[in-house]
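new request in #modeling-help
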Amino acid sequence: MKICCLVKEVPDAAVQKRINPETKRLDRSGEKNLNPFDTHAIEAAMQLKEGGDVEVDEIVAVTMGPDSAVRALHKAVALGADRSLHLTDGALEGSDVAATGYALAKLLESESPDLVLLGQQSDDGECYTIGAVVADHLKMPSLTQVIKMDAAGGKLTLERQAEYGYDTVEVELPAVISVGDAINEPRYPSLKAIMGAKKKPLDTKSTADVGIEADRVGEGGSRTAVLEINPPPAKESGEIIEDEDTNETVEKIVAWLDERKLI
Amino acid sequence: MAGILVYTLHNDEGKFNNNSLGALSEASKLAAELGTEASALVVGDVADDAAASLGAYGVKTVYRAKDVPEGLAQPIVDAMAKVMTDNEISYALFGGGLLGFEIGAGLTARLNAGVTMEVTAVKVQDGKLVAERPVLQDSAIVDVGYVSEPGIIIGRLNAFDLNETGGTATVEDVAVELSEFSSKAKMVTRGEQRGEDVNIEDADVLVGGGRGLGKAENFELAEQLAESMGGAVAATRAVVDAGWYPYAAQIGQTGKTVAPKVYLALGISGAIQHKVGMQNSEAIVAINKDQNAPIFEFCDLGVVGDLHKIVPKLTEAIKAKKAG
Ligand SMILES: Cc1cc2nc3c(=O)[nH]c(=O)nc-3n(C[C@H](O)[C@H](O)[C@H](O)COP(=O)(O)OP(=O)(O)OC[C@H]3O[C@@H](n4cnc5c(N)ncnc54)[C@H](O)[C@@H]3O)c2cc1C
Ligand SMILES: Nc1ncnc2c1ncn2[C@@H]1O[C@H](COP(=O)(O)O)[C@@H](O)[C@H]1O
């Protein structure tokens, strides 16, 4: 079977993220990295491949983003993907969730995957929704926040936590599954894999290549518009103690609690 | 087009979800401002009087799709899409949780609609709804408008207050033809409770344990601290998923909502999905070794340090204080 893993390039966790007040989009300057949540999707694909319950022919890393996003693809390949696919086109800039999900679905359609895996959330956008948008366009069953996945006989047995506790769900393939970060412990890439990543096949596609209708993507094709950006309501900041001498720290905590009659 | 449709989730015992009821209240209020009506959609085996009782939150019509199963998103997308299209409804509103994210997202694709998630407030501007959404770890709030209808609004947990105004709704049964792919996911078991049943909602003092505890056994540190203060122990999803602590003790988006007198967070980063379940605690104390942890943005007393060093001594000091 063929597994496509959706991966995204995001600002590094250490970078102070902010919104550009002019474009009203996330300021994407500074260090970037592979979305950490997506490493769990690649690891899940690798475990299916190595597990032996199903035959995995190839794992394809798939992204939509500017030129720089190839670095996320290289990292995905270093983690185990066999090749990668990059949708990049100026026409896609400013796409909202609806437009991004549509574009990714068209891109995936060109691959006819048996399984699409995603991360639970992008570290910058934090929408939690791309998986379910893509699934509806592809007319495939789907589940998000999955923390256990077993494959056998053309179907997956999945577990995830929802509003009332843990659900166990059986899903027929092909399917779109976003995995939670508790599903596995992603491996570190070997030095050899990192060195070899740039040599693995990478296909670049434009919107026209995969039949994306121009008026459904980009800022013009988006169904939402950011009207205003405001700071959150001011809140008195808390008191911060650095623990240098633990006995002293503890004294301070106890005094703080005692003052408020919490002990 | 007009109107707002709210998906109203219920559990296997037939109890409606509080966040859905909050969304109903919010939709009714917004509909009045827009000069239109709010309605609800329920799926599965919901009794006549139970469905009609949703009128107490201000909705006039309850659409009931009896043959659509509860609990998985895609069949409900089919139902929502049908009701919205047949009745030319302008907006779909979901309370916080998990299913609303999945259904709202599916609906986005199905109806080529705009979607905003993690919404904390909705307002009416020029006869249209505008959603307020905190972004970037709540460091900014964006106002999101919809350039076309329908628009989809997915609330953050506890964003919308319950408001019972009284009244009953008309129940209208709808026959929904499921998409072929909607029946390719099947619920095997729903809402399994993992671990023992513990009570965290009635405690005045809650000690929350997160991944920073390091391993399941270290929850003892949290338990001893809680005991010294006469409180209970709560947990994050990360540690519940890892099997370190019972699900019944989980706070947050897919767990419980609490508001104790004091919440002591040990090794908890303060992710939004945890914050939404405990931010109304009267006092929040956090011990975390990472000074950049988001929890330091919203706690009242933050201690930057190693919990393994601090907590045992803190427990002893509190015991001594009480004894003295
Ligand atoms: C749809 C959805 C629903 C969710 N629902 C929930 C929910 O209901 N409840 C919930 O809690 N989460 C929920 N989450 C998960 C949430 O996003 C976070 O992943 C989770 O809350 C993190 O748990 P944590 O703080 O224990 O772990 P981490 O985020 O890993 O944080 C551990 C912290 O411990 C600190 N630490 C490590 N070692 C030490 C030490 N020795 N001393 C002091 N500090 C230390 C670290 O600095 C770090 O800040 C949900 C996520 C999604 C996407
Ligand atoms: N531009 C993109 N290209 C590829 N995958 C993406 C993109 N945006 C989001 N994703 C995938 O969707 C998941 C959820 O993202 P989100 O819905 O934005 O929180 C991520 O973990 C990625 O796997």
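bot summary: Residues 35 and 291 of chain B are 49 Å apart (CA to CA).
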